[in-house]
User: Fold these one by one.
Assistant:
Number 1:
Amino acid sequence: MSSIELTVDGMKCGGCSGRLKRVLEGSDGVLAAEAAHETRRVTVDYDAGRTDPQAIRQRIEDSGFSVVA
Amino acid sequence: MSSIELTVDGMKCGGCSGRLKRVLEGSDGVLAAEAAHETRRVTVDYDAGRTDPQAIRQRIEDSGFSVVA
């Protein structure tokens, strides 16, 4: 299992962060995700044989959030 | 120009609704969109030659929201 930790802009409330968590956990190859609007931190555990950081970042951007780091 | 009006669950704050508006307005064939978390209403003006209600509903669901009507 691999993990990435990202800083994501655009989460304003628990609805925002909860939705991003669910979107990520519904994505192919993602094993678990946590998103916190208070800290802007998003952590994603993934199967490196099925997805990669670029695809995860793209999924976040496609959902209307911005990966800033 | 065609328009649809939908009821969408999952918008908790202005961050949620603002993001959904931007996601929709960035989608092919969408001319304008409004989203209000207070009322759960989403209105979308679109070019029927380039997209359709099914694609718009799918884009909303892919962003982690639920179209309920």
Number 2:
Amino acid sequence: MAAISPSRRLRRTPFSEGVEAMGAKAYTVYNHMLLATVFRSVEEDYRHLKSAVQVWDVACERQVELRGPDAGKLMKMLTPRDLRGMLPGQCYYMPIVDQTGGMLNDPVAVKLAEDRYWISIADSDLLFWVKGIAHALHMEVLVDEPDVSPLAIQGPKAEELMARVFGDSVRNIRFFRFGWFDFQGRSLVVARSGYSKQGGFEIYVEGSDIGMPLWNALFEAGKDLDVHAGCPNLIERIEGGLLSYGNDMTRANTPHECGLGRFCDTQTAIGCVGRDSLLRVAQDGPVRQIRAIAIEGAPVPGCGAPWPIMAGQDQVGQVTSAAWSPDYETNVAIGMVRMTHWEPYTEVDVLLPEGEVRAATVFGVFWN
Amino acid sequence: MAAISPSRRLRRTPFSEGVEAMGAKAYTVYNHMLLATVFRSVEEDYRHLKSAVQVWDVACERQVELRGPDAGKLMKMLTPRDLRGMLPGQCYYMPIVDQTGGMLNDPVAVKLAEDRYWISIADSDLLFWVKGIAHALHMEVLVDEPDVSPLAIQGPKAEELMARVFGDSVRNIRFFRFGWFDFQGRSLVVARSGYSKQGGFEIYVEGSDIGMPLWNALFEAGKDLDVHAGCPNLIERIEGGLLSYGNDMTRANTPHECGLGRFCDTQTAIGCVGRDSLLRVAQDGPVRQIRAIAIEGAPVPGCGAPWPIMAGQDQVGQVTSAAWSPDYETNVAIGMVRMTHWEPYTEVDVLLPEGEVRAATVFGVFWN
């Protein structure tokens, strides 16, 4: 792996000091911000995530804040998901598309109040899209990136660790709900959510100055729980079918291709951007869709560019994320497969770099 | 330096194969794309850039294409620069600001025709801003990212190399003008421009498939010119005062703070986003501004986060880019300095990481 050159443009986070002290070995860049990818090894991190508890610096999940009388109206324009039933205290995963139905981001929206939302974004400058629309339509809403940096606590012992720092009432937070919890006199949003299937929480740390005090408090409280620094784990997220914007989907894809059709209420979400295009897509269905794919043979390298999925001489899709799974003893992968070959157990070939051809099988469900 | 993890989200370019073969040692991520930062060493690359000719993969300068009857109207909304005199064949550097006058990008616009522009962007998803506005206002314009990847030829021998590949008429291209030139039957935009002060060209390579053929042709033709793979050079760009969006300026800054007031024709650019805010700024002038700063002592480390500029106990600015300059035998730096301390030859202190204090001097002009 090549080195990464430091610059202010690759922003540090309120927790970077802790991440470095814990020995992060590699990084990616996400929303112009550093995101660790490996601490001990991807496999060791994976084992630990499934058995203990990890603290993840996911400050790169930047927030787009909408605040003001038109915040709710603007939110409804932004997503084909029906937000009418959304109450303060809830988190909604919501696809955001352009006028052609192409995915711009797949964030989690956090409803703080009737006139105030955070959109916790994947890797694209969604702020620019939201600001552009709000400005052009003269909407009465402030749109900005606040000083809020999520810290995720993930793994089977996450609840125990959180209870020690925030009190037992965190145990009552339901999935994709949040509450306000006190830390050193500051009231923070704590949600039961996170980018793993091991369960856990995301703390929306408001105010960079309390980043390291909170980081340290968590490590102090969790010593006997074997708490460790971690990060979204490539193997675990593929096993769980957790998609990554920019990897498994881009602006070229509709939500339906990404298996996100259930978040598109095109009949009721009237007035959202891209609705006309999505009505068409919803009616006809997509011609390609995200699938779990098992690739045979030795551990594959990192997927730095899409790998063609072949049926004989014809390309019928592409793999966009892949890793060796120690638990399932196969290479687990996420790919987009054409309708002709997306039925479970369809056998295909995957073209790895340097011309290597591997047998692979399309599955209907992910591993976790 | 930590390693960078490969993923499709950090996009490869049509020239990545060549960049890797030439031994790129480190990368940054720019517009979700890989950009090499070092080949031999930053200093060796710098020497070579100033004496020979380099081929730079700057595909990460993605294009936002505007095409259609409203393209010109939308362009005028996007920038405070007066575009009325811009003709097809011209390139314009143009600040783009939000409604508060905060910088969103500082691209170079390329006017292909009255109804067709490319905006060659710095590191932010300007596409989202432009698409958002165009959609909200129902403008008749297509806004998209085309398959166009700039390749820069920079250095004193750039013209000679270009003439060998594209013919002698490239010599007639004036600064910030472009022409259409043939390569293997494909007509490409070739501009006299680039992110160095050594002179050179940018080829807007349309069609990823001809990326490597062009790359190879340039290296083949330039053997006796000591052509080498290169990249924007940190030392050279600081010496020349070439700003970097995300490093030396962010959304927090106005064009006037960045010394770009001369590109803001707020009296004539009526209807552009942010005009009201910029009128105010133009009248009052900025209270802080970009300056050249020389930092004494041994070579400084990479500037991964702003370094405070101090006058006694008061912070009066920050350094955002810095490097040791072999030619000027000092650390050259770019920073934002408050009005109280921006006069040439003002002496200040710079706080480096780990509490190190360095004497420094503010200058009125850059080195190159």
